[in-house]
């Protein structure tokens, strides 16, 4: 089984996956939860330690604000990970009730733009190159504000941020079809995100969060189309059954994850030089956090491994011959291949544990942080 395509493939994990989280009904706390960004990075480093796949951690500002960024960077370095995308946060401030970058009041827009200038500064100090923007702006009622006017304001705000970026910076613009607003979102879909990116310039790319589409959307089509335009900047991987469920990647629909990774492989976008940042965006509510992240990372690896097994020549021949069932069978043969022992062998050959979840549990890390991390307030989704 040739899995060489996995060489150099990495996944970025989110700092907010490790803190306390829940739903709008209940946030659960548990012993050993990280109390600050340093402890979140320490937890994230455990995922990399046993998988060898997750060497970057995304931060969310201001959730992950610290006084000394070079010190946080050094802490990450020491643990063998780097700081990845810097996420701005436009959804936890009273001033943003009617929007942020699209707000009708220029003073509020300025405040939201300034927040991004602060994020750019964090990037300079942490060595990050990706500024990730998810825009929670939108409307709940028809007529509440001008749909068109909001797009114009957004274009202007994004332009100011884009022009402040360094040459090696990228802007990652995430879309979401609903929530927190329900009549319209200001960046509801990949088309809107792409149009803004095209207007801004080459350093602006689209983020595809797998939970941000209407049910039934063909996500792999969007992946293919964005790659064709060279504008697929990043994924936010998670699973969903209903809305933005943020469940473990590949848990709800592993076949969809395989179809997505097949489009990635077909375009060679799994290779590091493609510039696609494979990030996770998950919130574990009831399951253990570090093992949950390990599971997700392994599910992405497994979907990629299967996608690498697709016999591209046989597929192309069947497609040319109009052999509908034959072409479909080529894909299914790859999807139905059991790659578990080949991946375990690969890990072993690299000095990694064959079973990363069990290996993590055997370290006793969870028990030792539960004993150490007493006092202080545990950080959570939103803290
Ligand atoms: C919005 C979102 C976005 C945020 C994250 C916490 O639903 O996907 O990426 O930054 O959740
Ligand atoms: Mn997301
Ligand atoms: Mn989301």
UniProtKB/TrEMBL annotation:
Assigned EC number: 5.3.1.14
Tagged with keyword Manganese: yes
Residue span(s) of domain Xylose isomerase-like TIM barrel: 70-246
Pfam families with a match to the protein in the record: AP_endonuc_2
Protein name: L-rhamnose isomerase
Keywords of this entry: Isomerase, Manganese, Metal-binding
The organism of origin for this protein: Actinoplanes hulinensis
InterPro entries for the chain: L-rhamnose_isomerase, Rhamnose_iso-rel, Xyl_isomerase-like_sf, Xyl_isomerase-like_TIM-brl
Enzyme class: isomerase
Source taxonomy: Bacteria, Bacillati, Actinomycetota, Actinomycetes, Micromonosporales
Residues in coiled coil: none
Gene Ontology MF term list: L-rhamnose isomerase activity
Keyword Metal-binding: yes
């Amino acid at each position: 089984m040739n899995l060489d395509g996995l060489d150099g493939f990495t996944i970025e994990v989110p700092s907010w996956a490790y803190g306390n989280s829940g739903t709008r009904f209940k946030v659960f706390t548990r012993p050993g939860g990280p109390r600050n960004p340093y402890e979140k990075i320490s937890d994230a480093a455990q995922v990399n330690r046993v998988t060898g796949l997750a060497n970057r951690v995304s931060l969310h500002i201001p959730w992950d604000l610290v006084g000394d960024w070079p010190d946080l960077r050094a802490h990450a370095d020491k643990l063998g990970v780097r700081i990845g995308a810097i996420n701005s946060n436009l959804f936890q401030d009273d001033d943003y009730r009617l929007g942020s970058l699209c707000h009708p009041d220029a003073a509020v827009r300025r405040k939201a733009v300034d927040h991004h200038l602060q994020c750019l500064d964090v990037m300079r100090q942490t060595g990050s190159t990706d500024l990730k923007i998810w825009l929670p702006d939108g409307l709940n009622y028809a007529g509440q504000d001008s749909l068109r006017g909001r797009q114009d304001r957004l274009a202007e705000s994004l332009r100011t941020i884009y022009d402040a970026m360094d040459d090696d910076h990228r802007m990652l613009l995430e879309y979401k079809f609903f929530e927190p607003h329900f009549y319209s979102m200001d960046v509801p879909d990949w088309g809107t995100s792409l149009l803004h990116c095209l207007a801004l310039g080459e350093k602006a790319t689209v983020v595809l969060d797998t939970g941000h589409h209407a049910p039934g959307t063909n996500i792999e089509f969007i992946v293919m189309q964005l790659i064709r335009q060279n504008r697929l900047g990043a994924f936010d991987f998670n699973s969903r059954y209903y809305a933005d469920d943020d469940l473990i990647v590949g848990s709800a629909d592993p076949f969809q994850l395989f179809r997505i990774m097949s489009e990635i492989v077909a375009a060679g976008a799994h290779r590091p030089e493609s510039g696609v940042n494979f990030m996770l965006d998950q919130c574990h509510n009831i399951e253990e956090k570090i093992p949950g992240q390990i599971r997700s990372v392994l599910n992405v690896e497994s979907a990629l491994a299967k996608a690498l097994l697709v016999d591209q020549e046989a597929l192309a021949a069947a497609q040319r011959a109009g052999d509908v069932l034959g072409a479909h069978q080529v894909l299914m043969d790859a999807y139905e291949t059991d790659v578990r022992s080949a991946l375990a062998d690969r890990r072993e050959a690299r000095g990694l544990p064959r079973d990363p979840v069990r290996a993590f549990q055997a370290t006793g890390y969870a028990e030792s942080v539960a004993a150490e991390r007493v006092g202080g307030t545990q950080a959570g989704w939103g803290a």
